[in-house]
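Quick question, first post here. What does this chain look like in 3D?
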Amino acid sequence: MQIDVSRDVFRLAQVFTISRGSRTQAEVLTVRLSDGTHQGWGECVPYARYDETLASVEAEIAGLPADFTRESLMDLLSAGAARNAVDCALWDLECKQAGKRAWELAGLPVPGPEITAYTLSLDTPEAMRAQAAQNAFRPLLKIKLGTPDDMPRLEAVRAGAPDATIIIDANEGWSAEVYADLAPHLVRLGVALVEQPLPAGGDDALIGMERPVPVCADESCHDPSSLPALKGKYDVVNIKLDKTGGLTEALQLRAAALAEGYRVMVGCMVGSSLAMAPATLLAHGAMVTDLDGPLLLAEDRNTPLTFDDAGVHPPEVALWG
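> Answer (accepted):
Ran it through. Tokens below.
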């Protein structure tokens, strides 16, 4: 099997800020696999939070033997961005070889469109209110928070988009005290979900705390082995392909999480439609779908995902799967 890896850069429509910093472009790795007749591809977004860089992920992929399969890949690479791009490329290749769609190979029902969150980046309350007003027509807004002074931001977003459902992503930025102070106000302001309020290494503080709205594990949940440590802390798990290391593990995590009584959120890093396409298979029945990466870009793949009033649609064959 031939494998090629390239670096691609997609300009963002505007500066995107979370509690860890800002960016103006999405830097991704694209993996292409070929059996000599068919080609499959996948995308990953190396993430510094998990000690990943473009170079380190490229090196992981370059170290693969020539005869790997989707099954052996699970042992050859650990969960993370490198395995994600290769695993999703293998799914795409297998679809091309079989002449079937990915959901057929996975034994899943035909996916339909799903309403996706649209993310407002961290800014001043005034700027976030303006962002919210500009996007008030969207049914679901996700707001990036994660500072000790987030209450004015939350109030501002609600004022700017009075009818939208709001979910919050603190990106590990709050302390237990900050979360406890904010929690009583969440219901009043129509917040439906709080994502990763505390650092993954300090989330034991959530045990015994009131959760007036569901709390979702993001950085605290990577694959099925993460689930035992989430008990008593979280109600929802955020499944991201770059964390699970691809669609294969993501499907296993989804099944395991649902079996243990968790609800599911399907999330993404900031990448192109190619990165989102496999994740659309996970979105059916999810509590929250958050696959808005392409909506944040100024440019995308040649056959992008379709976003409309019905939500994000499954990919066309020309894109993936």
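The first strand starts at residue 2 and ends at 18.
The radius of gyration is 19 Å.
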